[in-house]
Amino acid sequence: MNIDLQEIIHAREEADCLADAPAVEAALDRMAEEITARLQHSNPLVYTVMNGGLIFAGRLLPRLPFPLETAYLHATRYGLSTHGTLLDWRVRPTQDLRGRSVLVLDDILDEGHTLAAVLDHLRGEGAREVLSAVLVHKQHERKAFPGMRADFTGLDIADRYLFGCGMDYKGYWRNAPGIYAVKGL
Ligand SMILES: O=P(O)(O)OC[C@H]1O[C@H](OP(=O)(O)OP(=O)(O)O)[C@H](O)[C@@H]1O
Ligand SMILES: Nc1nc2[nH]cnc2c(=O)[nH]1
């Protein structure tokens, strides 16, 4: 696909900032405290859901001052689109999960189908407990299950199409330091 870089730059320039970099830092600090209190004695295996979870994990993990192991899996439902479809598993977990405490990190819980499928899969592999942490919880009533939330949430954000902090706009701006909403979406 040919990407119009001018359009990508324009989208960033005219986007609404819904959480600036200091707000994200504060959310990460609070989440790290909550996760530490819950998991510091559990020797957890921490899964990052690629690609969106990459930046969140890279910023959260150094804030966790206890022993843990890391791994990744890759599941995608949106591709380069702003609408989700069927979940496409690209890399499934390969570690032995029996008896383990597992924490899943992802950038956003939107409709929640991605997280629900990932959690189901990990529980099916015999983990003792599977918890989830997302940087962003999108505020709407279209969740996979009514009232669905991750165990740990950084920020509740309005029902717009978001980018930044790992979330992409047409594959770009995962590197943007705050959380932005595309104009008109
Ligand atoms: O709650 P849902 O509606 O299921 O959406 C959330 C998922 O969507 C994004 O992934 P995406 O499919 O865009 O792939 P990516 O991580 O490569 O950006 C995001 O990283 C979450 O994994
Ligand atoms: N980039 C991005 N990915 C998503 N996946 C689910 N919701 C969103 C969103 O608002 N932005």
Main features:
185 residues; alpha/beta; Rossmann fold; 6-stranded mixed β-sheet; 3-stranded antiparallel β-sheet; 4 helices; 26% helix; 28% strand; globular; binds guanine
Q: What's the layout of helices and strands?
A:
Blueprint (H helix, E strand, L loop, with lengths): L4 H10 L1 E4 L1 H19 L5 E6 L2 H8 L8 E8 L11 E4 L9 E9 L3 H12 L4 E10 L13 E6 L4 E2 L15 E3 L4
Parallel strand pairs: 2-3, 2-5, 5-6, 6-7
Antiparallel strand pairs: 1-9, 3-4, 8-9
The structure holds 1-O-pyrophosphono-5-O-phosphono-alpha-D-ribofuranose and guanine (GUN).
Architecture overview:
With 185 residues, the protein is of the alpha/beta class. It has a single domain, classed as 3-Layer(aba) Sandwich (Rossmann fold). It is built from 4 helices and 9 strands. It has a 6-stranded mixed sheet. A 3-stranded antiparallel sheet has the order 1-9-8. The longest helix is centred in the N-terminal third of the chain and has 19 residues. It starts with a helix and ends with a strand. 33% of the residues are buried. The mean pLDDT is 95.
